[in-house]
Design a protein that fits this description.
53% of the residues lie in helices and 14% in strands. By secondary structure, it is α/β, with parallel strands linked by helices.
């Protein structure tokens, strides 16, 4: 048994010595897996576009009657009974996909955004009547069926399943454009995107500038497009009455869902993180690390309405973190005060004097869908474009 223990320690030491090499190999595997998924999604979107355009053309020219689509679905099934997902309803969805995103209204929208992202002479080019090609992960095939409109490259941001969800629930082109970009950037799967739409992620993100201190916006220009001004905690199943301790423990028990709601760049570090200042011990509710911003993020929980004194406590924690724990390669820590209610006028006054990168966000216990705001959509497009350029 003793020799086995020695061998175990030796194996552990060997693993530590080669850990960086193993990470490199896994990185290669993960990168190629991602490319395969992107390629499959891209080909599927292109197929949907061409089928939808072909059927649309036949129906518009009255070459086909409405019953022909059902016959087409049956024909596809007889050709290959193993093929699934080719009902006549699906074919009509493909047609809607083509008609919606080849429409002049949608092309005008992304054309206007283009004019503010890329040089004007590029935006005026016919091939660039779309969100910049950098926003798509797969180049569309240059060979397009005759009679079809050029496919906007923004459509390659996410897969066909997500597109169906976006078409079903989003009422405006601005909403559709946002959730395509958001799903692509966050790599959201179907259920995750469904939740994002139902919790109105668009207005929660594009409206967050109003609840962030000027210091935070100066130090982190991307912050208004990364953090939400409200989050939905319906997945916690909270009781009617609870204290902050109960809220914290419930979040810990549902950490995966909580991080998905906050944003996938969050990495959980600690709960009730101990900070020593002047020989006294203080505890920050939740401590995270943000991969994109490369900084620690403190989240303080309040089950009551926001009070300015809460902001002072949060700033104290940030100062302690930065002086005692922040590493030389890390950026200044961010503080998020997550409270149940907030008077926005009080929040504005409090944040005006904040000397730290802080923000105030509200949480909702029940799923609520609010009105989607459209401002700052151009900023979000710019942000996604710059993020994709950095990844490349």
């Amino acid at each position: 048994m003793k020799n086995n223990g020695i061998n175990d320690r030796s194996d552990n030491n060997s693993l530590a010595a080669y850990e960086s090499d193993f990470e490199a190999v896994y990185g290669i595997i993960a990168a190629h897996r991602d490319r395969v998924v992107q390629q499959v999604n891209g080909e599927t979107v292109m197929m949907v576009w061409e089928v939808g355009g072909y059927v649309s053309g036949k129906l518009k020219t009255s070459a086909w009657g409405s019953g022909v689509v059902r016959q087409l679905a049956e024909y596809i099934h007889t050709q290959d009974p193993t093929v699934r997902g080719w009902s006549y309803r699906t074919i009509y969805r493909m047609m809607k996909f083509y008609e919606s995103y080849s429409s002049s209204a949608f092309l005008d929208l992304i054309g206007k955004i283009n004019n503010q992202i890329v040089p004007l002479e590029m935006a005026q080019n016919h091939d660039c009547q779309i969100v910049p090609i950098e926003l798509s992960q797969i180049q569309p095939d240059p060979i397009v069926t005759i009679g079809l409109s050029q496919i906007p490259s923004i459509l390659f941001s996410t897969g066909w399943s997500n597109h169906q969800l976006i078409m079903n629930y989003c009422k405006t082109d601005e909403q559709r454009l946002f959730y395509m970009l958001y799903a692509g950037r966050e790599r959201l799967e179907y259920k995750e995107l469904d939740r994002a739409i139902k919790t109105d992620a668009m207005s929660a993100i594009l409206g967050s500038r109003d609840v962030q201190s000027q210091v935070m916006q100066n130090q982190y220009p991307q912050a208004p497009l990364l953090f939400k001004d409200r989050v939905s905690l319906d997945m916690l199943g909270l009781p009617l009455r609870y204290k902050e301790n109960k809220l914290r423990k419930t979040i810990i028990a549902h950490m995966k869902d909580f991080i998905l709601e906050m944003g996938k760049d969050f990495l959980f570090i600690d709960e009730e993180h101990r900070l020593m200042v002047g020989g006294k011990s203080f505890k920050a509710d939740l401590l995270f690390y943000h991969r994109l911003l490369q900084c620690m993020v403190v989240i303080e929980l309040k089950t009551t309405e926001f009070h300015p004194k809460d902001l002072g406590q949060l700033e104290f924690y940030l100062e302690a973190l930065d002086q005692e724990e922040r590493r030389s390669n890390e950026n200044p820590s961010i503080g998020i005060l997550l409270c149940k209610e907030a008077n926005m006028e009080v929040v504005r006054f409090a944040l005006n004097r904040s000397m730290s990168p802080t923000m105030v966000a509200q949480y909702k216990e029940q799923l609520q869908v609010g009105g989607v705001i459209q401002r700052s959509l151009v900023e979000f497009c710019k942000f996604v474009e710059e993020s994709n350029k950095k990844k490349k």
